Amino acid sequence: MRTYIGHQQAISAEDFVELALGTPVELWLGAEGESEMERAARLDAARDILADPEYSNLPDDVARIAAEVIEAHAPELFNVVPLTRSARRRRSSGKGAAA
User: Fold this and answer.
1) Which of 4, 46, 53 is nearest to 26 (CA)?
2) For residues 61 and 22, is the Cβ–Cβ distance under 8 A?
3) What is the dihedral angle through the alpha carbons of 50, 51, 57, 62, rounded to the nearest 10 degrees?
4) pLDDT at position 42, please?
5) How far apart are CA 11 and CA 15, in angstroms?
6) Which pLDDT band, with edges at 50, 70 and 90, does 40 fall under?
7) Contact between 55 and 67 (Cβ < 8 Å)
8) What pLDDT is attached to residue 59?
9) Could you report the per-residue pLDDT of 43-71, keeping only the tens digit for each?
10) DSSP secondary-structure letter at 98?
11) Whose CA is closest to 20, among 70, 55, 50, 72?
12) Mean pLDDT value of segment 71-98
């Protein structure tokens, strides 16, 4: 099955997120081994993007996408296993019994 965002095909999960958000994922998450100067430039660019009215809904979009992914994949993400309750033992009310 092929997934398209607009006219672009999303081949991987990273492509899907990038196309859905309109920005590269690395801009928000960073890249492994980036220098302090690269990090500062990346964060500066991210602030500029968030200031643009076109991306004013970006934080809400990210939260919505994350919630949808969690909802769709909750059992796999959290390895949810239903717990069963063990039978409870009832104590006898042995009034007058010496301990």
Assistant:
1) 46
2) no
3) 10
4) 92
5) 6
6) very high
7) no
8) 83
9) 999 899 888 898 888 888 888 888 887 88
10) -
11) 55
12) 68
Q: Note if the pTM is more than 0.90.
A: no
For residue 14, what are its two tokens? 């990273």
- Token readout for 79 is 């390895």
Cβ atoms within 10 Å, residue 82: 4
**Tokens coding 11:** 């081949």
Copy the structure tokens of residue 2: 């092929």
DSSP state at residue 55: G
Burial (Cβ within 10 Å: 0-12, 13-18, ≥19) of residue 3: middle
CA 7 to CA 88: how far, in whole Å? 60
53-58 — which CB contacts under 8 Å span 24+ positions?
55/22, 55/23, 58/21, 58/22, 58/23
